[in-house]
Input
Amino acid sequence: MKLIFERSTPGHCSDYLPKSDVEKAPRPEKFLRKAKWMLPEVAEVEAARHYKELADQTFGVVSGFYPLGSCTMKYNPRLNERVASFPGFTNIHPLQPKDTVKGCQAVIDLADEMLCAVTGMDKITIQPAAGAHGEFLGLLLMKAYFDHHGQTQRTKMLVPDAAHGTNPASAVMVGFDVVNIPSNANGCVDVEALKNALGDDTAGLMLTNPNTLGLFDPQILEITSLVHEAGGLCYYDGANLNAIMGQVRPGDMGFDVIHLNLHKTFSTPHGGGGPGSGAVGCKDILKPYLPSSFLGKDERPEHSVGQVRSFYGNFGVVVRALTYMLTLGAEGMREASQTAVLNANYLMHLLKDVFPVAYDHICMHEFVLTLADIKKETGISALDVAKGLLDFGMHPPTMYFPLIVPEALMLEPTETESRQSLIDAAEKYKLVKEKIYSAPDELRNAPLTTYIGRPDEVKAARNPILRYEE
Amino acid sequence: MAGYIPSTSDERQLMLEELGMKDYKDLYVDVPASVLLDELPGVAKGISEMEAETAMRAMAEMNVLYPTVLRGAGIYDHYIPSIVDTVAGKEEFVTAYTPYQAEISQGVLQSIFEYQTMICELTGMDASNASVYDGASAAAEGSMMCLKRNRNVVYVADNANPETIETIKTYAYGRDVKVEMLSSKKGVIDVNVLEDALCDEAACLFVQQPNFYGLIEDIEAIADKVHNKGAKLIVGCYPTALGMLESPGALGADIATGDGQPLGIPMGYGGPTVGFMATKKAMVRQLPGRIVGQTTDSRGGRAFVLTLQAREQHIRREKASSNICSNQALCALRAGVYMAVMGKKGLSEAAELSYDKAHYLAKRLCEIPGIKMVYDGPYFNEFMTTLPVDAAQIEKALHKVGILSGLPVDGGMLWCVTEKATKEALDLTVQTVRGAVSK
Amino acid sequence: MSRKYCKTHEWVQKEGNLYVVGITDYAQEELGDIVFMNLPNVGDEVIADEPFADVESVKAVSDILSPYTGRIAEVNEDLLDRPELINEDPYKAWIVKLEDVSDSAELMGEAEYLAFIEQEG
Output
């Protein structure tokens, strides 16, 4: 596909703005643009065709089955898009007088109320723009809490080795030292190891439940209890909330602060990598540290940590999430999570004789396959199998995560797949499995039928070309 | 209610049976009974799509829409060509995930590569990332990029947007980083005292261009002084202004950041927007966030792929310098389409119209007794005036005629004009303010 | 002193007053194609068994631990432009040279090291 610059022709353009109706003011000559620069020169029809071509080479949830473990690629309702584009939501300046934005405030307040009910928290802030951003804020709240209470010796953040990489990275950004907690043979937190790591230098534990293996840790109440006894706080990574939405509240499990991924659990679209929303919820004890907008003149919490981005957060994303929550309601949310878990177990059941499951146990909304033995036996890796799936028109599952399972493939079908869709998918996995023994070279060179073959990632990293040059 | 679940309850019951289960509860056996809910209190019953649309529309209609917006301070009311909406509304772009599987994501990857290139051209830099959350967090991430073992003091111009200043301070909290304010004089950075103001441990200086008061800073002179101290210069820029003003890269800045909202993203009550970050070649490997690179595929053709991933949190974990793992892709796509269809011609037009209309309004407002410009220097499209009456009175008077006034600030009002304001609207503004002042 | 090896797959070889450090063939094999090296500066102090540099492949980052406590005397700047030199000849593509060394990490001879990696694999 040509780059837009390669489609440019000098002089091609469109007429979007009117001529000036005021006099030309004197220019600040010293500061004007003089150095040569370029942007594309295309007529609108040329741009329209260009972006159509790009869209045709993009696989979305709308294109097919997208079982990316830990991403919750559920269907993105069209209604949410319609509502989010109401001018009454899009054409509002964040610094309008408060009595002219009662609608925005109503959205934020209702989302706060509903998300608190779902999570068992006392207050929600929508300021963080993504899950990792929410983690950063959540940990800042914890840090501020301990600083304020004179417990600055609490510098250690406990993180399970199965955790997503953002967990330890966020902890370090906030100045904590990361202590890794190993998993036990069942894939859950090793409680003995946890006990040994706890002390009065413990700031807290970061956990997701169900965990990144898709397993619900049955010892969760004991775990959070132990952390509280040691004087620490418990952080819930909400990435896997889709398994328990409306069935279990993180607040009841003993968590003090959480982040949500509205773009996972609450159906807002992933957009090719954003925008999402990492709303953070907390119990009363952490409310005094919540962020606010300086110019927005919200009532600033007494010991606010400041702010992690400008203004209030990804409001447009919250509008979509709220629309979804209103549509589903309490029983809809419960049905969604139950079906997400049912679909995952069903798919696991269909695949258990095809590829080995990492943990032979009831899973929650996702499960992990391990191709370690297959790799040893045949040399075909999880990567090869994933690329092989592309030739069957399917988006592969998450590869090589979590790190504690070798040659991992993690599948999360979500509730918006039908029974037939899962059966069809399993059939394709069977066909790929057969290829391992009948046509392994095809897998090593897969994908063969997609727009491009495997990209040379080594070359890309050794000699980075990060922009177009004429 | 609509759960968007395709399978019927019968189909689901069949699936349960195939799993040897009777009831949904069987799926949640690992959950302690004391926390497993039988119902979800505090959330109303679900409603149909039609009812949900009505409910949300009612909330939207509670907001006031201003036909003319004369307020900026970080979010700007610029004209968005309709094709930006069309492209950003394409289902494939909307519903795709991060392009980790390059073979079926060339569309997204190429659009990001194009965006990265355009940001480089706009800012005069060598490399851009795929975007970060917003301009304020971009400024914070940019500051953190400059930290070294013996350089851990971040200087921030006190005339930058307070939202940005607060964000940088929040990002610094908890790290072994000091944030110092650099005083401005007569609204701009005082270049004469700049070098002495920076200590030997200075990692960087963050300056906004144009600054919060709309004034144009002398980036070239500032860069010179900052480099003399061995520190880096980060310039947070208003992208529309770069349609007219020289790029930070050409003037010696090391890092350019900013909020891309003026590039085809609606005001949206402040979010989502998009933060851009671009830098010179020397600092490419310190750039946080996602980056798309060009390579070849197994068939020898051109291919785009996420690259330099070893910087990122999912690999480095606690050794990562930032935890960021998303870009605001769909917003960056809007910015890319805007820059592509507007081109240099369109961006320059938007800049010049904003500039001329702002200067027109300023001139006419200052004809009103009691209203004067607070600062003298050259400005782009925002400017501050004194007010002889309470700012609230001006705000109210203009509200009545469908105009959102400038932002009330200490000492007066911060006005902003973009290409969307017609001469009629500006004349009505002046007439209304004159009336409100004389009361 | 003949070449010695660490459990963490670094090698070290005395060269006059300096100790030359690199990573072993086993290490480069495990890492795969190396795309970038994060090298220390001349004059940096290092501590035995603690990381002083890291090596990036496409999908991983690995710390390189120092076999001795001491100071960096020289850094192989060629590796900045051509990190693949380590994949090509890991015993020729040295990473740093140390001076003023004192404590050492646990060091093995060649035979011992080969036996050790037999066990690991």
About this structure: Chain B has two domains: 68-78+344-438, 82-337. Chain B touches chain C through six residues (CB under 8 Å). The longest strand of chain B covers residues 202-209. The domain at 68-78+344-438 of chain B is CATH 3.90.1150.10 (Aspartate Aminotransferase, domain 1).
